[in-house]
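User: Show me a protein chain along with its predicted structure.
Assistant: Here is one chain, sequence first, then structure tokens.
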Amino acid sequence: MPYDDSLPPTRRARPLSVAAALAAVCLTAAGCGGGPEADGAGAAPPGPGADAASSTAPTPAGKQPEPSGTASPSDSGAGADSGSAKPLPKGPLTGRTVVIDPGHNPRNRDHTREINEKVDIGTGRKECDTTGTSTDDGYAEARFTLDVSHRLRTLLEAEGARVRLTHDADRPFGPCIDERARIGNEAKADAVVSVHADGSAVGNRGFHVILPAGVKGGGADTSKIVKSSADLGARIAGHFVRTTGSAPSNYIGGNTGLDTRNDLGGLNLSTVPKVFVECGNMRDPKDAALLTSASWRQKAAQGLADGITSYLKG
């Protein structure tokens, strides 16, 4: 779930052109009407009885278990602020910069005081970060987002893109939401994608892409990125459907897979095209079975990569 999301999301009207762009892709994609079951890889699906969504998951007393097939952050290769150390291949994304923002941080749970401190998001103040959510079996959103982000980085670098992560579990907590936005801005990124998973009620399924609303106030001004971010988000949504087979959210976005918000600091403070992607609902057993599957996470990364590539190639 969005690390600076303190209120449950509400449905908002989307620009017709954005919804139409997703619909056009969905018409050619199998599975737009409903998500598939897990393919059997990874952990077994959690049991029923998940709590309703909240902005942060309870901070566990001990280390959360790692499902089979999930890489530990220490095994992920290159450091947070750079991609691979080896020269990048020439490809369709050569000369382009993409910032990947893995939602939350596995160590946030040990630094609740620091992450609860509020920062300026231009139109108000919000908590620095949150712990994120988890499946009923304890698979943390922060570990999911890192795993998918590592896979996404590999795919984009293979296309020639310079990729930067906002963090790689290499710091004690955070970064805070204002710093996450600043990293993308200072990199002059051609696209920024913040990777998340939601924590909603059982029965709420599917993915959605969060787009920045038109916001101007304090240090926030999204007027120059609203249109480009909507294009990026629509392309990601369309390719995510096609590649993963997952349906757009049945509880946010009116079945478009798109939601526009004005309350997220990571979007409000961005000066470059940026979206959040909620890849599924960790609190629903069927979605959790997908999110804990290594092979599905690879599909999710591929769908994100395809959408980013489509956007950058125009």
